[in-house]
Design goal:
Number of strands of chain A: 23
CATH topology of the largest domain in chain A: BirA Bifunctional Protein, domain 2
Distance between the termini of chain A: 57 Å
Largest interface: A-B, 124 and 123 residues
Largest sheet of chain A: 8 strands, mixed
Helix content of chain A: 25-40%
CATH architecture of the largest domain in chain A: 2-Layer Sandwich
Oligomer: homodimer
Number of domains of chain A: 4
Structural class of chain A: alpha+beta
Radius of gyration of chain A: 30 Å
Strand order of the largest sheet of chain A: 6-9-10-22-21-20-17-11
Strand content of chain A: 15-25%
Number of helices of chain A: 16
CATH class of the largest domain in chain A: Alpha Beta
Chain lengths: ~600, ~600
Amino acid sequence: MFRTYTCGELRLSDQNKTVTLAGWVQTVRKFGSITFVDLRDRYGITQLLFSESLNGQLENNPLGREFVLQVKGTVNERSNKNLNIPTGEIEISVNEFSILNKSATPPFTIQDDTDGGDDLRMKYRFLDLRRNAVKKNLELRYAVGRSARNYLHENNFMDIETPFLIKSTPEGARDFVVPSRMNAGQFYALPQSPQTFKQLLMVSGYDRYYQIVKCFRDEDLRADRQPEFTQIDCEMAFVEQEDIINMFEGLVKRIFKDVKSIDYTETVPRMTWEDAMWNYGNDKPDIRFDIKICNLKKPATVFTNKTDQAALINGADFKVFDEAETVVAIAAPGCSEYTRKQTDELTEWVKRPQVGMKGLVFIKCNADGTYKSSVDKFYPEERLKAIAESTNAKAGDLVLILAGTEERTRKAISDLRMYMADKLGMRKNDEFKLLWVLDFPLFEYAEDENRWVARHHPFTAPKPDHIPVMINNNPAIEDAANYLAHPYANIKANAYDMVLNGNEIGGGSIRIYQRELQEKMFAALGMDATEQQHKFGFLLGAFEYGAPPHGGIAFGFDRLCSILGGSESIRDFIAFPKNNSGRDVMLDAPGPIDAKQFDELQIKLNLKQN
Amino acid sequence: MFRTYTCGELRLSDQNKTVTLAGWVQTVRKFGSITFVDLRDRYGITQLLFSESLNGQLENNPLGREFVLQVKGTVNERSNKNLNIPTGEIEISVNEFSILNKSATPPFTIQDDTDGGDDLRMKYRFLDLRRNAVKKNLELRYAVGRSARNYLHENNFMDIETPFLIKSTPEGARDFVVPSRMNAGQFYALPQSPQTFKQLLMVSGYDRYYQIVKCFRDEDLRADRQPEFTQIDCEMAFVEQEDIINMFEGLVKRIFKDVKSIDYTETVPRMTWEDAMWNYGNDKPDIRFDIKICNLKKPATVFTNKTDQAALINGADFKVFDEAETVVAIAAPGCSEYTRKQTDELTEWVKRPQVGMKGLVFIKCNADGTYKSSVDKFYPEERLKAIAESTNAKAGDLVLILAGTEERTRKAISDLRMYMADKLGMRKNDEFKLLWVLDFPLFEYAEDENRWVARHHPFTAPKPDHIPVMINNNPAIEDAANYLAHPYANIKANAYDMVLNGNEIGGGSIRIYQRELQEKMFAALGMDATEQQHKFGFLLGAFEYGAPPHGGIAFGFDRLCSILGGSESIRDFIAFPKNNSGRDVMLDAPGPIDAKQFDELQIKLNLKQN
């Protein structure tokens, strides 16, 4: 062993011990003939004192940043204590030292606030990983994984590995594929998730399965997506939705306790998908802040159980509202005194193509109880007051109103809600609010193919009382314009998402476990019997041999860690992430392969002309 | 929840409780109007009693094998107790039951000694997994993994995930590759191991890393190899060989304790590679039984530090020995009375092409102290006695002698040693003998290319005192016939294998951490500077920024589990294994992909004519 102690370990109580340390040179400070070195390793930093007698040796073997150094010496009390670090009361009086390896000057500083840009840090990721900020993230990731494993173990879950070289059954996202040399012309696929395997394990009687496992999706990478990502993947047999919710609420609370020392004792609130969309315009609302949407107007075809407040805006001859499908509002707390410049900026923001609104209507709820609006000439103050009150605006708030087509406007008000909350500091990194979103629609309508697609995935069961609706109706959509009137549009899934601070951190469902219902589902998604058999024959077959009721959930491990770490970026929580083109810039991968590899795999390139 | 208790949980102390169970019907036994059902789940089997009053209902809803059944009832003491199972003192008097799912008749019985053949069981793996024999294997696997994680955690190791989509650097085994859609014409590779990543993590200062991780090798599958397999992969910084050996001897002993309740307190013996080859003809000797090779004759070029016993056989005019490079013998205990038929069978066995010997010489060490041999006419009894004694044969033993070329004959005697031990019941499944094999050669000679290849991998360091030999000599082999005389042939690696019962369960090495030495190693393997930079530029670069001394080990998780489980087959310890053609017969994978996938990936097939 090159050391007897780590650089984070020695205390005043170790005084006079003879020790050997090894680590990296963080800083070198010379004071005349005396040299102080901060020696760093994974566990901390210890101050080294090189006295005058070592001066000559140091001059012949000068130390530089990031050199790997081994020292032998004695633990002494420091005259100049640094109580900010655990080893700050001692220093090592060095007797001997040995440079184990030299270092070139790093291309950026190994410090929390490094001078390295993103690209440089990714290229030299092995140096970036030395930074305390990144190390803390990976430590948190390990702690989250360990906490999850312990909780699941205590609850009788078994970690069972599922295969990585499986069959390509593209449905939803694209598969990564792997040409098989031994079966020329054929391909494996990398799993998008172990979904069907964990269901087979339930059929096999393993009743509580989990795995922390890599999954792969060949999608065009949006910011902060990775082609390979990690899930905490879980499945249980003989359960209903309530059982899953309780078990995995427990898991997340345990992680909070173990990793963040947070006693998350409150019951996690539950919200239907419909309420989430109605009140927040979003199926993963951030409920750290209490801004809800006021639905002033909606089309008749959506949210048929909800009532809008159209009376508040109708009859004013204001064309923008009158001609809009949907009019929605939020109250931004404390913003009534926004200047013209500030409100113009907000208007520009909603007009950006990513949001796509035509404009923004304001009502200032002045501190003196008066109301002032950009639509004063259509709405007398009394009406402005009524609208403002329906948004729960208080004196001093600013009401923001958007109008347009239903889907776009609802998304826009949700975006605006988040934007304002960010602006107003209402989304605190160290505050955590969990939420269950339930009762998702089972199907989504795919306009381009005029058919249904599974909102979650094709294995999700409908709510028990919606099963007859699914079985007894033809999935074909006769009247495309009126697809919302099709009975399938109202079938709810036995599915649940766990939301943390406006991010979906986990999602799952009770599964179909009867062959007949699974076939009906596949058929509803446009798969004929031949295709069903080809792609999922093994699962349909398994359902014939005593499949138990079952359900599960999968947590996005990278995302969960990043939120717990108070960061927006999952890349900061992955040791060796890829960039937005799916490249590992450190490895320079992907790359070309040899002619011999092409030959053995019996494939060739077929590049398109650009 | 569909149950209040599992089928392995209820005891006499639960008497009179009202319970709900759910599980699979193992057996149905009718006695007049009373029906007994054994209900099975992951946790055990509980007897159900359906009394007369449920008879009608049962007739309308007959139960079959593997039906999924839910029952409510009362826990009662059994009249006819079965003390072989933990629930054998009670039964459930059923009040209500519900068939949750039916089952077709399984294609084989769900029992330890199933009537299903291998192919059928693999096709219906989800049913095979229900068998107790297979379930126990997966439970053992989970226990081994958990034990390893706990030990490593307690020793400050961190689980850090490394990427799966990396760069193809074929060196040794073939890579599986993954075409990149976003980087058309380029490919990722799946990792053969996380070797370079764990070394980068050491450079990054993570000092104790582990991962239980899937690895991929596209090799022609010999029996009991899988294209995807799992490693317990570990690396440590600031360590020497002794530190690694101690740490991981501790790991394996901890696994024995946790999983097998075995206190493996003895120190694990250590053996040099040379001694292993000399005494056992094998670099992973099974030392559960004490049969060693007697080296009667060897060529001058090999084992230059060892002395053969040629005097025992020379000068007898026995051409077979005189013309052979190598003559080796073992004593088979208690086999002196083998019949002619039995010795003929042994001779046939060594003549099989897989062994490739021309014949087998016997010396029977009779109980009465006399010696009888197939080469009586060349060797008088006195000489037979001397040869026999040099093998440590006792009265009643049978000496088996092989002669031929060095490499083949040594392998043959090793095979014969194992074959005899199997025959004689000396390889007991429940006996475990660990062994460290050390001081492997760093290089192997590749005859076809007349160059050196790395015996372990190109990152293994030479023994410290052999580093100058490597640095100061030209790796080029001038005299191919005499390659053993090249200084590189005698460089020993700072590498170690852990052997359990004749299987390599783990292997590793102290790594090179200096750029210069790593470049010399790559050059010795025939890689010029351009190729080095292209394939491993990231690692060479990392070594410039303060790489610490480091080393590690990787355990073959599948193999370790199978040996601990007393089985020869790793497939029995993998939930969803592939067959010897790399196929998953349950999924029917690999398979064809769509034209759209080819189009997006910009590749096409280029199948060879057969």
